[in-house]
């Protein structure tokens, strides 16, 4: 290292050591409540505390993230299917209008939007900035405040303002510039600064912030509006400053130890004393677990809380909430206060290393609930209600919700490493599962260390050494390794930095005199430990931690009349499968069988079988009632089955279905999952005629490495056997048939673009056919939506003349000989149920004179929105039957898309038949789509989370 570099390093260290903060920021701002604009003149004194010479300085201008639909924030909203931003009016979006950037000598500085990115500014320094030197930047600009309906921050309809990211801040430079865009992740990374803010607001408005606040004399020029007041705000060593500005005071405050607590979180009309007691208890708890809060004021807003709430049953409306008001309020404040406590004092890179704060946050919440509410259940008071209390969910503690949320994503094969950057996380992981996994991981670590004080001491030392300093998870790891008496490398190597699952089982047990030789199998590839318990009836006799299990490992434990061996008996290890953790030494069955009415949370102590009544309808069987027996729980299993014997009240016949599926995850991306299935069903396909369908299948599922991508590929190979009862009056020639089907599908979609296509090949004894379907949707910047679909199909050979058009391509209503579609009346040619359509094959809506093609068919479908959910559609195609000339077909009309693809109406206007709307019995030409499957409808709401 040369002398210059040593000199610069010493200077940088000296500045960091002796000064309160690296930068100072002075802001003179004025709020125009009518135009929703903040006019700002800002002075930033930037100090170079690095060892490098800086020629430019980067700033975050996150207020400009709202400027359009194509900014990184706009694209993020589209990826998450958040329509409200895309369809918002221009005046509802925010922006930054920069008028001037200069130095303290008023010399204009060269600046630009870095690489065209809307919310990152690059400013060229007056001269190269040496280590230890400072430069003053003078910025003059206006902030157009966005509506709060996008992120809960901005202007509210009631005239109030919650301002977040409302001013320009310098980015963090360590060995490089840490610059990244606003993506609605609440993860702005900035240096601590000293603030002096002068804020002018209308007389009737109140300002709430964490800074020291004064109202000064109104020395405004006479020509200015005298209904204004000036507020001064100041503070040292502060991060991001949020302001809450409202007409009516919505915040309440009271002393809490050494500082003032301010909040507007809904208090459920609690008495002030109860709020004060609850809040002081939370703050005392955090002070004991972490250390003192370094500021004299803490502000907790409803907007902050709602952006990261306590997910669960306490999100229900008031009349359904199962928790006492006091607990409800306290747990909300605990979540919000703990998050603020950590965010304001630990300077961790929030995009790339936030897992450590998440772990501390959730671990502290778990510890608080264990200490003050040890008997609180996950469903609160409902756990005591007759009927509900019989379910296993009523047995679960409040803290069990954290493991369940993580396990849900692990079972869906969507879990991601804790070290994954925040903008690469699936939304459910970002908002819920990863933080919960981190907190549960700390409880796992605490149990493994076999000393409750080790982790608590580590947390307290980590906080005290790093408060108001830039830090990282590596520093936490160093402290833990210095205190722990056991090896903890596995926690960071496998639990934090990978998404490797935990799944252990007791493979075998051998008795050897006064000991037991237990063989434990690690079903996954990791080095994480597991606890082995020996039980005598319900009493714990022994507990042994077993480490370094590669494949299998044998463990010797004393045999103290042990009757049962259990892995992780106290359920502190976040295993994705606890059902194989039991070994009964006194009985042939490891676990008793349990029958449960209705679906429940998985109880690993039992082999559970659920049953539930089901109701369906078709015109031939009428209403059917079934008793469905199944093993699937609230969280998906790899192996699932359901058996549903049913009875049709109209057909008066025994009906039903059964299905067995197994999912095998083989990789994280690429070919990541193979799904095997066997299913069968028996229902009526015509009056007094039953069909029996039996199918076996295997699906190969592909996905990209980026789990946020909606790109998916699937290759499905199946064999479908159909057996139909003969109609003696009008017998079908081929009642029984077998079809081999190979289908490849690709899809990639988000809010603004959709591309999907499929290739389908079918072969049977009497025919073979190929077809392809291509779907494309585009949502333009002017909110116009265009939907296009192309279908083409041709027979390789076709010897089905005797069966009519049963196996032919359909123009408007497939015959569904594979029984894939949920028709209300699949054999109906007239009546209401015949008007149901499935948008498959030809995709036409009008019934034309050439409804089938037994040689080849090509159709093109298009529609575009006229206004909101009203669309104009048009279809065109060519139908070719053997022995006939190809026929050109078309139709057009109006589509009412009430719930896209799930409940829609089609009103034909014109077609080959002419002006349809003027023809007799027009009501019989109206077509509809209806989907009654709950799983399909649930997909509408989960797509933005998964």
Give structural notes.
- This protein is α+β, with helices and mostly antiparallel strands and 946 residues long.
- Among the domains are: 22-200, Immunoglobulin-like (Sandwich); 266-345, no CATH class; 354-495, Neutral Protease Domain 2 (Neutral Protease, domain 2), CATH 1.10.390; 505-585, Sandwich (Immunoglobulin-like), CATH 2.60.40.
- It is 18% helix and 39% strand.
- The protein has 13 helices and 49 strands.
- The strands form ten sheets. It has an 18-stranded mixed beta sheet that branches. Strands 4-7-2-1-13-16-15 form a seven-stranded mixed beta sheet, with no helix packed on it.
- Strand 8 and strand 9 form a beta hairpin.
- The longest helix has 23 residues, at 427-449.
- The two termini are 50 Å apart.
- Residues 3-20 have low confidence and may be disordered.
């Amino acid at each position: 290292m040369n002398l210059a570099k040593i000199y610069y390093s010493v200077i940088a260290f000296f500045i960091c050591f002796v000064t309160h903060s690296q930068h100072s920021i002075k802001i003179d701002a004025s709020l125009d409540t009518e135009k929703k604009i903040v006019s700002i003149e800002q002075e930033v004194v930037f100090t170079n505390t690095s060892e490098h010479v800086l020629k430019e300085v980067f700033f975050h201008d996150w207020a400009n993230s709202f400027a359009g639909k194509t900014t990184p924030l706009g694209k993020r909203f589209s990826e998450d299917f958040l329509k409200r931003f895309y369809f918002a009016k221009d005046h509802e979006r925010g922006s930054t209008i920069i008028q001037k950037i200069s130095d303290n000598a008023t010399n204009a500085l060269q600046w630009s939007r870095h690489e065209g990115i809307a919310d990152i500014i690059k400013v060229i320094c007056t001269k190269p900035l040496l280590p230890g030197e400072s430069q003053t930047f003078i910025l003059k600009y206006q902030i157009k405040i966005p509506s709060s309906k996008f992120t809960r921050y901005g202007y509210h309809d009631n005239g109030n303002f919650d301002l977040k990211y409302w001013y320009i801040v310098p980015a963090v430079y360590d060995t490089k510039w840490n610059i990244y865009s606003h993506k609605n992740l609440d993860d702005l990374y900035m240096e601590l600064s000293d603030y002096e803010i002068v804020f002018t607001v209308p007389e009737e408005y109140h300002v709430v912030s964490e800074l020291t606040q004064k109202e000064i004399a109104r020395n405004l020029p006479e020509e200015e509006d005298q209904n204004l007041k000036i507020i001064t705000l100041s503070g040292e060593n502060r991060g991001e400053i949020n302001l809450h500005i409202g007409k009516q005071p919505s915040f309440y405050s009271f002393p809490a130890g050494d500082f003032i607590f301010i909040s507007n979180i809904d208090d459920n009309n609690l008495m002030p004393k109860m709020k004060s007691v609850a809040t002081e208890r939370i703050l005392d708890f955090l002070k004991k677990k972490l250390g003192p809060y370094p500021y004299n004021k803490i502000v907790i807003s409803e907007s902050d809380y709602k952006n990261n709430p306590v997910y669960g049953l306490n999100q229900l409306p008031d009349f359904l909430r199962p928790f006492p008001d006091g607990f409800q309020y306290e747990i909300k404040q605990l979540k919000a206060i703990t998050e603020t406590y950590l965010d304001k004092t630990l300077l961790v890179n929030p995009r790339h290393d936030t897992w450590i704060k998440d772990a501390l946050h959730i671990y502290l919440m778990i510890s608080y609930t264990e200490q003050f509410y040890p008997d609180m259940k996950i469903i609160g008071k409902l756990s005591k209600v007759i009927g509900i209390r019989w379910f296993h969910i009523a047995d679960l503690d409040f803290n069990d919700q954290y493991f369940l949320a993580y396990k849900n994503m692990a079972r869906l094969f969507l879990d991601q490493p804790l070290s994954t950057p925040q903008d690469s996380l699936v939304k459910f992981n970002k908002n819920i599962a990863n933080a919960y996994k981190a907190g549960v991981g700390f409880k796992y670590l605490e149990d493994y260390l076999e000393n409750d004080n080790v982790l608590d001491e580590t947390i307290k030392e980590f906080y005290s050494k790093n408060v108001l300093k830039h830090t990282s998870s590596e520093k936490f790891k160093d402290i833990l390794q210095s205190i722990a008496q056991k090896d903890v490398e596995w926690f960071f190597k496998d639990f934090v930095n990978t998404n490797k699952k935990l799944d252990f089982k007791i493979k075998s047990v051998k008795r050897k005199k006064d000991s037991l030789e237990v063989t434990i199998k690690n079903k996954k590839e990791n080095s994480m430990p597991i606890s082995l318990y020996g039980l005598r009836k319900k009493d714990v006799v022994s507990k042994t931690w077993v480490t370094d299990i590669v494949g299998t490992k044998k463990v010797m434990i004393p045999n103290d009349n042990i009757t049962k061996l259990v892995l992780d008996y106290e359920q502190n290890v976040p295993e994705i499968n606890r059902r194989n953790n039991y070994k009964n030494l006194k009985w042939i069955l490891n676990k008793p069988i349990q029958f449960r009415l209705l679906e429940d949370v998985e109880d690993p102590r039992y082999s559970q079988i659920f049953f539930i009544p089901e109701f369906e309808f078709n015109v031939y069987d009428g209403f059917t009632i079934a008793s469905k027996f199944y093993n699937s729980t609230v969280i998906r299993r790899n192996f699932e089955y359901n058996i549903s014997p049913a009875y049709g009240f109209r057909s008066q016949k025994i009906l039903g279905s059964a299905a067995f599926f197994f999912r095998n995850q083989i990789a994280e991306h690429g070919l990541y999952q193979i799904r095997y299935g066997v299913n069968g069903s028996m229902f009526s396909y015509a009056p007094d005629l039953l069909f029996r369908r039996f199918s076996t299948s295997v699906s190969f599922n592909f996905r990209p490495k980026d789990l946020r991508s909606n790109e998916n590929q699937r290759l499905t190979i199946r064999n479908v056997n159909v057996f139909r009862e003969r109609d003696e009056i009008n017998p079908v020639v081929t009642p029984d048939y077998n079809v081999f089907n190979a289908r490849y599908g690709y899809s990639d979609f988000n809010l603004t673009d959709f591309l999907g296509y499929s290739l389908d090949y079918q072969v049977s004894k009497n025919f073979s056919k190929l077809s392809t379907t291509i779907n494309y949707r585009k949502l333009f910047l002017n909110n116009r939506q265009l939907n296009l679909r192309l279908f083409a199909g041709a027979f390789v050979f076709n010897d089905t003349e005797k069966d009519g058009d049963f196996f032919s391509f359909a123009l408007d209503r497939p015959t569904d000989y594979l029984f894939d579609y949920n028709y209300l009346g699949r054999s109906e040619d007239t009546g209401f149920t015949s008007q149901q359509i499935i948008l498959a094959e030809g995709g036409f809506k009008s019934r034309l004179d050439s409804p089938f093609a037994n040689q080849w068919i090509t159709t093109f479908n298009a529609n575009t929105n006229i206004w909101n959910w009203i669309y104009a559609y048009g279809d065109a195609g060519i139908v070719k039957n053997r022995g006939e000339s190809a026929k050109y077909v078309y139709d057009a009309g109006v589509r009412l898309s009430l719930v896209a693809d799930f409940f829609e109406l089609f009103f034909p206007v014109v077609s080959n038949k002419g002006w349809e709307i003027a023809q007799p019995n027009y009501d019989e030409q109206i077509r509809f789509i209806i989907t009654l499957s709950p799983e399909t409808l649930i997909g509408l709401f989960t797509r933005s989370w998964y």
